[in-house]
Amino acid sequence: MDQKHVDKYVEEKQTLVRLAREAQQRGISYRGFKVGCALLAFNGQEYKIFQGANMKPFKQGPKYCAEGIALGSAQAEHYNFIVAIVVAGQPQSEYDKTLHPCLECVDLFLGFRLGLDTIIHTICESDQKPTEEFLFVDQLHNLTSAMISLTKSRESNPAAF
Ligand SMILES: [Zn+2]
Asked: How far from 21 is each of 88, 99, 113, 148, 153, CA to CA, in Å?
């Protein structure tokens, strides 16, 4: 990624973190699982930040992830180069330090043609909790590794599946 985009991300990082947490407060979830997102996008001339909050109003209802909402807004205004995505949420298991974008979001990121070097920064509701920062390519790599190990364990113990 062009250094100017990385510099802009560093400059806007604290703002993105604050806006992602603000959006998290506005999430709609039947089970209190709120996720917020703030992404930094570029339209070839200017940068702009877009926010998203998740919506899952009832259990059997549709699910809209915060990341997808923010990406849709950026697309609607034709800011289709995504520099960084900041996601604020509660980690989903004791093994995860932060909440990572779900598989559907990864599909969306691929469909959106997100760069492999798009920065993903995952945070919790306060500065005292852990954060993670990685590139989109790293998340793809982790998913691929997880799928390979799942396939292997399925082959070695098909009865378990
Ligand atoms: Zn998602």
From this structure: 6, 13, 26, 34, 38
Which pTM does this prediction carry? 0.90
| pLDDT reported for residue 161 | 65
Q: For residues 76 and 91, give the distance between their C-alpha atoms in angstroms, rounded to a whole number.
A: 30
pLDDT (average), residues 116-142: 93
pLDDT given at position 82 = 97
Ligand 1 midpoint to CA 161 (Å): 25
Place of tokens 């800011």: 79
Structural domain boundaries in the chain: 3-160
Mean pLDDT of 48-74: 97
pLDDT value for 130: 93
Task: Identify the three-state secondary structure at position 101.
Answer: coil
Question: How much distance in Å is there from the Cα of 159 to the middle of ligand 1?
Answer: 30
The CATH class, in words, for 3-160 is alpha beta
Which H or E element spans position 56? Answer: strand 55-56
Q: What protein residues have CB closer than 5 angstroms to ion ligand 1?
A: 65, 102, 105
CA 20 to chain centre: 10
Centre of ligand 1 from the C-alpha of residue 55, in Å: 11
